[in-house]
Fold each of these.
Amino acid sequence: MFGLMQDWPLLCHRIIDHAATQHAGRQIISRSVEGPIHKTTYAELRARALRVSQRLDREGIRLGDRVATLAWNTWRHMECWYGILGIGAIYHTVNPRLFPDQIAWIVNDAQDRILLTDLTFVPLLESLAGKLPTIESYVVLTDAAHMPKTTLKNAVAYEDWIASVDGDFAFLDLDENTAAGMCYTSGTTGHPKGVVYSHRSNVLHSMMASTADAMGVSSRDVVMPVVPMFHANCWGMALTGPMNGATMVMPGPRMDGASIYELLNDYRVTCTAAVPTVWLMLLQHLESTGSTLPYLDRVVIGGSACPRAMTKKFQENYGVDVIHAWGMTEMSPLGSLCTLKPEYVDLDGEGRLDIQSKQGHPPFGVEMKITDDGGRNLPWDGKTFGRLKVRGPSVARAYFKDEGGSILDEEGFFDTGDVATIDRYGYMQITDRSKDVIKSGGEWISSIDLENLAVGHPKVAEAAVIGVRHPKWDERPLLVIVLKKGETAGKNELLAFMEGKIAKWWMPDDVVFVDEIPHTATGKIQKTALRDRFKDYVLPTAEAAE
Amino acid sequence: MFGLMQDWPLLCHRIIDHAATQHAGRQIISRSVEGPIHKTTYAELRARALRVSQRLDREGIRLGDRVATLAWNTWRHMECWYGILGIGAIYHTVNPRLFPDQIAWIVNDAQDRILLTDLTFVPLLESLAGKLPTIESYVVLTDAAHMPKTTLKNAVAYEDWIASVDGDFAFLDLDENTAAGMCYTSGTTGHPKGVVYSHRSNVLHSMMASTADAMGVSSRDVVMPVVPMFHANCWGMALTGPMNGATMVMPGPRMDGASIYELLNDYRVTCTAAVPTVWLMLLQHLESTGSTLPYLDRVVIGGSACPRAMTKKFQENYGVDVIHAWGMTEMSPLGSLCTLKPEYVDLDGEGRLDIQSKQGHPPFGVEMKITDDGGRNLPWDGKTFGRLKVRGPSVARAYFKDEGGSILDEEGFFDTGDVATIDRYGYMQITDRSKDVIKSGGEWISSIDLENLAVGHPKVAEAAVIGVRHPKWDERPLLVIVLKKGETAGKNELLAFMEGKIAKWWMPDDVVFVDEIPHTATGKIQKTALRDRFKDYVLPTAEAAE
């Protein structure tokens, strides 16, 4: 027997309908790519999104067609998302920070038909255009006055493009499982893989993100997503903001400390979100100028682990709560947020920071487990670490074109590729990537823990730890060190520094000194390259064992 | 093209799974029907709910079967809900405040197979049992020690009942549109009509209720639903609490001021909800004892309009925020909540109370419109009133057995039967019931506004206004007055009192004085009976017009 409630599909454009109806005059304040601050409202943004829908429809864009955006966070980019969503086409956010060849590969893989781009990226696209055969036209997100001369095919200024239709259009009613957005993961190996969000997954994700123990966004909040719309679905914020009628501040192309500070202060931002790098720049700016953050209430920090010192500074020096968060492109992307449950809420000082070093707990709608390699559940004791697996309505079940094949376990959980602990109150902490963890005699050693320890040595500039083949233990840790300029040190000095701070059997079997450690385009240590370089390395302990 | 996200149906029992996993030790504190305070946890509650599922399954209860509950808010009642939900059966909450014949009618209409009841209602059921042929067995929510001798068929004490199974059971995976719960509306005319919630509608409703501008429940909240689980789906709180890991306090059978105060104070309740009558009793208790409310943060008041003086007292005397709310059984039931958007947040004093007299604004997932009788949209100016219609995933599309036929308009909106204004910021205010509004020459007059004005006269105990046939204007208002004991007054005195406070054409055409105004079982003025009594009444103005 079925319930007798209304069939009301969860559609992303219903979010902007709600914002335009219930929060019509609330502002979206953007730093434009052209320079000046631009202000609009939800009512106006929806009206212009309807024009985007109408214009796309006129160009023959249909249900399931991909429309690429290569753009910063502005009101125009938001209009484009809702306009694309409103006719059942798919917004495909392309990350301009990828290598040009990767960009071309991704656009071709997605078979994008139209590409909407900011002025910033016109030169890049001109150099790539020959490699992008599926793109029928380029829309530059600017007005006629700022439109550059360009060789891009059928190039048109966005303001002219949407002025060519009258806006007398209605968003389509769709199946809620209709594809809504696409975002590629930048794998360290192989080609990038496309994640395909649905209207349903995006709406549910935003409802989850809205809850009090997640971001808790209200209409009284002023929300600034510094995390780009091209990065992991913008952590859902381009949907969560309007869903709750929050005022939005969009930073456009400038993410340096001074520019971010100006927006935080001038527009009284209460809630913002970005990766640690952005906040490092902001904190440096605050310290060098002696500025304060009187309006900011909370900052969500994710993308990579938030350093303890950063949390401490925000909270103790500036009175801003840090919400450490974790997620993945494959998770829409929020997986967990480190808000404080009653068991921890009364902690302060170092005890509070200990908990805030964890990546937090999942909202309703994200299930988590940690397992060993055999898929057996591991205990939630805050110590045992295992493969972190997740399940829920905003978690991927497959990649575009079935790239990578079946990605769920027999219980339907997605293996995140992370290794983590979970404590008795459900707080998860990332320990390592599963491909980087060192498997020594059936036990796991965290490469990240060893690296964090080694970089604490005053002579060390950078450290990496990889597993190297061992005849007795399968793998043992090798510590790879780049010394600070002008410093000298030996193996024993490094190991002595680590002694007593880790379990004895975690101690690296050897230390090698190198000039440079290889990095990926996004700045992470390229462990595959390191492992390749040291694949025949013979550990002194291996010689002894043989 | 469809998205590639996981198929994770929105099932109510996943809420208790989440609570038991992420908030395992959080407490549910109940005043038991037997008397003492009882404490349990989400982990324990879920384990016992599994036993309920297993036991129901053993008794042959299958997908879609109805299981009735006639019970107060306690941990056991919550266990029963989740146990029933977990096998795809339907919890049917029966309101013990209805007339016995209505209870029998409802149980028969729903064809309930098992009835779970509190000790309180055993005598009532014994007197009714002969009229309840579909009930195969009665489970009394108590233990063996408190189990009364009873003539009820196959009667068993709940604790024995669930002790007879081992709990080695799993909740079922179901289609999210599976019927979950049933609640009858107490219509003033005709038979009660069954509303059938689905798992999906209940889960989405709780997600909507969780947002910051609705109830904003967090794991740090201590939530007490005084509103009974048998009343309008408990305003969703039996689901919203565990969804967010809140501590819960369940008041059991005692809702007098002293009992409610004891729980609010002893267990540091931060958020509670009930109808105005309950809060009237609490405020009287506070005033007579000189008590304060140091822990309570907010109180949700709905079911009928919250008196302005009540809001004022809570806020000014006790520092507790009032959230005026509105909903219907047909809406799961929340429709709107009067939290303050930025446009109103800086108001204080009378200006703030003006806004808080409104029933508020809908969260994402509830669409509202006001229309005239022809279905044309009316302006949102805070003055024009029209039929209030709603649409959304937790709004009914039909009643059980299609009672009442088609209930949606051509755009899929449900007519609430209320008449309301909506202001430019989306705040809705109920003006009247549409069947009570007086239609005079094509214009509408609010009977409630006139009644509220008339009861302000110092000699008036109660007032009702109904529309009476008029040859020229179709209908004109007739004011029906019950004077306070020992008072005398005439028509002109009453009308003079109203003069200048309403539009001239709203002035009642006549006043009649009666000893008593008829009421429904739930204490509302029975206007149908009044209209029946005065159906041949000839207004003095009618005589003049003819």
Amino acid sequence: MTTHQDCIALDAQDPLRSLRNLFNIPAGTIYLDGNSLGVMPAATPARVADTVAREWGTDLIQSWNKNGWFAMPQRVGDKIARLIGAGAGEVVATDSTSINLFKVLSAAMNMAAADAPQRKQIVSERSNFPTDLYIAEALCKQHGMELVLVEPEDIAASLTANVAILMLTHVNYRTGAMHDMVAVTAAAHAEGILTVWDLAHSAGAVPVDLTAAKADFAVGCGYKYLNGGPGAPAFVWVNPLHTDRFWQPLAGWWGHATPFEFTPDYRPAAGITRYQCGTQPIISLAALDCGVDTLLAAEAHGGMAALRAKSLALTDLFIALVEERCAGQGLCLATPRIHAQRGSQVCLSMDRSPHAPPLRGSLPPAGTPTDLGRPGGGGDSVAYAIVQALIARGVIGDYRAGDGGRHKDILRFGFTPLYIGFEDVWNAVEHLRQVLESGEWQRPEFNKKHAVT
Amino acid sequence: MTTHQDCIALDAQDPLRSLRNLFNIPAGTIYLDGNSLGVMPAATPARVADTVAREWGTDLIQSWNKNGWFAMPQRVGDKIARLIGAGAGEVVATDSTSINLFKVLSAAMNMAAADAPQRKQIVSERSNFPTDLYIAEALCKQHGMELVLVEPEDIAASLTANVAILMLTHVNYRTGAMHDMVAVTAAAHAEGILTVWDLAHSAGAVPVDLTAAKADFAVGCGYKYLNGGPGAPAFVWVNPLHTDRFWQPLAGWWGHATPFEFTPDYRPAAGITRYQCGTQPIISLAALDCGVDTLLAAEAHGGMAALRAKSLALTDLFIALVEERCAGQGLCLATPRIHAQRGSQVCLSMDRSPHAPPLRGSLPPAGTPTDLGRPGGGGDSVAYAIVQALIARGVIGDYRAGDGGRHKDILRFGFTPLYIGFEDVWNAVEHLRQVLESGEWQRPEFNKKHAVT
């Protein structure tokens, strides 16, 4: 049995422990939601204040040159490139993930239309993050293509001669299950299919090597594991083999070859710059720069490989402690146990399914309520109530509603190795044990649905 | 002749003078570039610091509900609505102007395809801001339509039965010329044509009444006259008659009817919310909120009508003083003298054309150089050099290169009535006079082209 003292000892031995000091973690909080919104780096308030008061307030319009605003999307993009196996000049930090996905999917569709016009399908995963599916659905409607949604185990079989593009999120937002990017990309390419990867839950969370994987297109999020702040700009990467070949229709002036000549006709810039559209939110971009710096600071401590080792140790510990200390409470595990298939989060469910098997020792005693009923079809579930009870205790995870398919309501816990420690894991599980054993989660105040959870 | 004392007296009588205190204007600066990047409001640093340190740093993910992040695009949009004659719930502050233009133009094209499929043209102005033309060009390419570019005097004649959409920028970015939105919209509607208005240089600068004009779609910029900070989110409005009828393809999760049910199929939200796509940059959005508040503060002093009266007084004064004090320097006026045709800026040129006639008394003595030569095709012009010499003296205007058509290189001066005074105008003209009379602009350091000017 792992003890509280064991966890304290693990923190003391952790070579990454000092990185936690790069963040302002609120007192009394165990923050297991960095997969939704990363913690604020300690350096961010001063940097943002300087961007506002000096760069904007004093230097005003001259900051576009003097303070390098003009090249910020590329400069921050170059830093992100180091985290995802991309080269300098291959990434821009810009717009939102949804909008960047629209750009790369458009470019991939233009490319497929030129190279393989008979291919009319885009394949994705049914449980992909919905905005990715919405954007793909919109583009399919415009391009006369078909969006085919499959379960993960059916992806290989779906890669036929009718398929133009395989669009996947590397780490599933709901279950934390991770695809083998190298193998899946190779399988797609073997069938002549382009790959588009959404790295929202993997950039800064797990090692990614887009170059080694020979991926075609990728997008990702700035405000999760990159700690860029709420709604931070996202990023976009295109394999240099393709960048200059294909056009995307969000063809605004910032993607023009010579934007300040103000010519009436569009000529795309060389390279990834053509994936820019309009002026970017500089203040939010400055915060993103600070966030990315926290990950680059880990390079001196082993970088993404060391972060990954710690992440797996944290998620392994969480699973083991839940099994040991929350036995008999009916908790099921929606996240794969196999390391190579797991991102940096662990998802639990109170609703058993083949895809969320009961944890060891967790079958509940007869008569345990497993559902409070769900008026209005949403959210008043056991998982929701447990998450609310934990938040009231300062353990911040989140809840995701069932998708009407194989995935039931879940409790989602993200483990950001930059700032989460082993004792945090102990304390989180201890709170979970108390919430479950006391029945505290059944209090009425924990069963109200908020707009965002 | 107007004197320096007259200008001081005009400031003393100005009922809007106190609004200047809402801004931090750098000492020694006369900032005539609020049409490119508005000055920082005094309230912004504290508001941004609070958004970063308390809302993000302390409240973290709970801020989406607790601090109202979720509804910020609508809340700020409702404030902007008051400045442009739109109703509450009709505007969202989101994404960039280019991207919002893509959304409304897509919706307008879908609407035209349903209602009048034989109409295959979009008409715009050749000297419209280029990003608008690039976005329209991209969409025309996708939809099998044609972008027809005309000079402003030819717009009326171009409104034929082949035209689906008339897309115009209300106030021209280069000349400050303003369209009569009511008359032009009525003329378009009389021919069965939809109107899309870009308010980048009019929202917060001149009175706009989209409802009275019966306009169909509009977008605008947050970082010019709205003082929202560098790259602040833009805004989008759709006439309530059309909002729910038509779909736009940037169909991300934030525009979904129930984004947190995470359903795999897209169902657009009711109303303007369907013009949202992904998560917005909250820190930059907080700054925009402060910027818009400075305009709402003017409501107690007569609002946009009072700001307009002062703006015209400032631009009239600037023109008159340049005529009086910069005689013989060859300056031409690219901005209309007629009030109803003028935005809140004045543009001068050293290159005479029918569209930039010489100012009274400004014909230069024989032998005055009118061009330094333009190596590399761009920017090393007299206008550029004069702007640089003025900037070195703390008078911040900007330079815009000729467009190869009727518009020559210009010196552009924006007059933001919230914070520019009559003595500022006097001083700016006095610096201009000295720069021209001394030949200071011919110094080599003023003839180097920067990336952004």
